[in-house]
């Protein structure tokens, strides 16, 4: 079964003014669409991988045949990253987090404000294209990391609790080169309910043996 582009869970103008309609349309339909198309094209050469979820493909890149490894890394990663990204945002989102993810943020970073500052700083400093994440470690702790390109924390044995896309395609039409302004505004559309569900999946240890991010 081929990988499929999941529909946006809201209208393409629903996150205005934080994310403008044109950026959202291009980002979902064209960029994410291309990752799915290119992932499927790469996998055509290796029918044995047809049953694997995108998460499983990028979890162990060394198991991917060398001739398609880079394509799977970039496009499989792009597919997993963006499938998460649409769901961890929502209209009228934002505010302070609640639930267990708020507890771990307070415990690890002192306060939500301090966490946001560190997360935004890491995202601003990611050189070139990439992502900034709150990632879960095998011992249950969490940390802020950045990844280049479409690399996902799963490839490093970490759990992607949530991340923000700092590729220029995510913000340039509205924010131009002002990435820090985009990073600061993005919190207004964050969906803490969805992030708490992902955090619960991480705490339940689902990352290791089932595609907690399954979308198909
Ligand atoms: Mn993107």
UniProtKB/TrEMBL annotation:
Signal peptide residue numbers: none
Task: Provide the catalytic activity annotation.
Answer: 2 superoxide + 2 H(+) = H2O2 + O2
Enzyme nomenclature, EC number: 1.15.1.1
Family annotation (Pfam families): Sod_Fe_C, Sod_Fe_N
Entry annotated with the keyword Metal-binding: yes
Keywords in alphabetical order, please.
Answer: Metal-binding, Oxidoreductase
Report the GO terms under cellular component. Answer: cytoplasm
Is Oxidoreductase found in the keyword set? yes
Which residues are in the Manganese/iron superoxide dismutase N-terminal domain? 3-90
Molecular function terms, GO-annotated: manganese ion binding; superoxide dismutase activity
Q: Which family does it belong to?
A: Belongs to the iron/manganese superoxide dismutase family.
Q: Matching PANTHER family, A to Z?
A: 37S RIBOSOMAL PROTEIN S26, MITOCHONDRIAL, SMALL RIBOSOMAL SUBUNIT PROTEIN MS42
The protein depicted here goes by the name Superoxide dismutase
Q: Which organism is it from?
A: Candidatus Sulfotelmatobacter kueseliae
Q: Provide the organism lineage as a comma list.
A: Bacteria, Pseudomonadati, Acidobacteriota, Terriglobia, Terriglobales
